[in-house]
Each structure stands twice: as structure tokens, then as C-alpha cells.
Model the fold of this input.
Amino acid sequence: MKRGHIYTFVFMVAITAVLVFALAAAYEAFKAPIQDNKALQEQRAVLYALGLDAGLKDSEVAGVYAEKVAEGAIGGVSETAGQKVLAHQEGGQPVAYAVPFEGAALWGSLRGYLGVKADLSATTGLVFTYQNETPGLGGRIDEEDFKEKWRGLPLQSGVSLRYGASDPNLPDAVTGATQTSSAVLRTINKVLQEVVFPGEVK
Amino acid sequence: MAAEKIGANFKRNMFTENQVLRAILGICSSLAVTNTMKNSLVMGLGVAFVTGLSSLTLSAMRNVIPHRVRMLVQTLVIAAYVIFVDLLLQAYMPDISKQLGPYVGLIITNCIIMGRAEAYAQSNPPIPAMWDGFFAGLGYTMILMIISLIREVLGFGTVFGFNVNFVGFETWTIMIMPPAAFFIIGSMIWFISARAAKKAARQAK
Done:
């Protein structure tokens, strides 16, 4: 059967409308669990950066977060990368800060939190809430092996961090993902210079 | 044409006409995601699911799709299913969704899906078309698993993230990087093609 242009046109409009409608319905149906997951991931990320998430079940995250995390300010800065600086509070005193950061990596932007002790002597952890790096390569910055090396690194005003595989006081880059690793380092050093130790190193 | 039996369909897509090794489709993702077995498995199952459902849908509509715009329709249907899988993963498997990140979206561009739609779903009834798509995806998954097994063991000394490197073997960095998959896939294609050629020669006699 030979079909004309009108049939083709109507068919395309109709099928597009049907598919768009179906996807919109699916999006609505999944909206609640997706948003819950996002909120949970964000809170867990903050706890991870502060070193508080060890052994926490998903159901316990919100409780611990509400109990220990509050908005804070590091050196008078209460907002970085468009998000609030958060603090781990014990007895009303800040113990550590989770500083939100944003940077550009190899394929896309990079967002996350850098945890720093309240006396600025060391890091408490590093976590990414958004990254778009190659899975298995740059994407491995999101794996424990990489992130755990950012815990408890001594910080010093005026000294930038660098990679060093054999030094326990330095983080280690991801093999085969030099660009992404460098981008992470650049982003973190920028946070250190601009927020943690502002105005000391240019 | 007599309907192909489901077992024959399975065998064809898994072995004799494996999409990666015989049709050289889906190579891009075979190079990229195969350095860990977990990523390969989820990617493979995602492709199998999308290929099966899109073949089913496209085959069911094969008599009403205007021939001239059939590729547009294929892309539309495939894209819709991929977005659906992406939403599903985000809602119920957030960890895996986070890890696969951009690769879920890239399922759309996996040539196997459109290849099956063009080569099979277009001219076969819906149910066999669904199995054909699903089995083609499984054949892809199988190859991905074989490649990632080699790469993960030699590159990280692990299998599905569990350490199997008991003897202090020095892992090969090259295995983690995409070029390793080039060599592995290349060797596999060489082996399979040589065997197929031999078999064809024997039959010709």
C-alpha cells in the first residue's frame, strides 16, 4: 500500500505524542523514589565527608544527619559553590566542616564535599555528589580506594596538596585517569586556597 | 518463511551470529565498560532489556510504520525505552545508576539495538522479534563478561570486586585502559572468524 506524506506526518506526530506521554507518566510515577534517593545520597555524602557514615544503614542516615549536622560557617564563609557549608556539631561546638565544592573535570562538572577538621589541621574526607567521568577510568574517583586516601590528610596553610602514591600523607591518583585525577586535585586545592585558608596563597 | 524455533534463535544470537564478534556491532561500549565485570553485567542486561522491548514494539508496529521514516521511529522507540530504564535504575538501583552514569543514556547509540530492529524486527512477528532482541543482548552481555573477566583479573586482580590475587601478581595497568579491550576483542574476532572460515571451507567440499 502506498502511503502519502500526510500519513507519514500524522504517524510521526502521533507516535511522538504517545511516547512522550508514556515517559512523562513514568517520570511522575518514579518521581517520589528518585527524589528520596537523591536526598538520601546527599545526606550520606555529607556524613561520609565528615567521617560519620561508617556502618550506617540507609534507614539511619536521616536520623544521624539531623542529630549531628547543622549549617555552619568556615572562616565566616557560609556558602560555597551555591550550597550551604555544613558542620558536624558535638555539644554545640563544630568538630568539622563539610565544604561544598564545584569544579570542571574531564567530561563534565564535578560536585561534592570536602570535609575539614574545625581546627583546619587535616581533612576528614572527600566525597563526590556528581561526576560524569568515564566509568571504570575517571569514574573510579568515586570508589572507596580513591576516596579513603583523602581522609586525615594533614593540611597546612599555604601548601597545596599533590599526589604521591608512597606517602601516606598524600592522596593517590587513579591509574589511567590522569586528566580526571588532576582535575580533582585542582578543584580541591582551589577550595583550600579560597575557602579554608583564604588570602594566604595566590 | 517458517518461524524460527526459539532455541535456534538463541543459538544464532549467542554464537553463530554473535553481534559483537560476527557483526562487529556494539564495539564502542565493549571497549569502554569492560574493565570491571559488574559494570559489564549491568550494561549488558540493560542492552538486552532495551533490545528485546524495542524489537517487540517495532515488530508489532511494522505494518503501520511508513517505510521512509522507519529509522526515525526506531530511534524514538529505543530512546523512550532507554529513558525508562534510566528512570527505573534511578528509582530502584541508585548505586548502579550512579556508577553507570552516562553509559545508560548511551545505550541509545548501541548499534545492536537498531541493527536488530532493521535486520529482524522489521520482517518478523513480535514474539520472535522480542526473543531475537533479547538474545542478541545476551550474546553481547556474554562477550562483555568474557572481556571484562580477562581485564579485571589481569588489571585489578579481582573478580566482581573480590580479590583473587593471592600470589602478589603485579597487575597490568594496560588492562584497565581501553586499548586492552582492543587487543582482546581483536583476538576473539580473529579466532571466531578463522573457525567460521574453516567450517565454510569444509562444507564447500
Remarks:
- Strands of chain B lie at 158-159, 162-163.
- Chain B has one domain: 8-204.
- The radius of gyration of chain B is 18 Å.
- The mean pLDDT of chain B is 88.
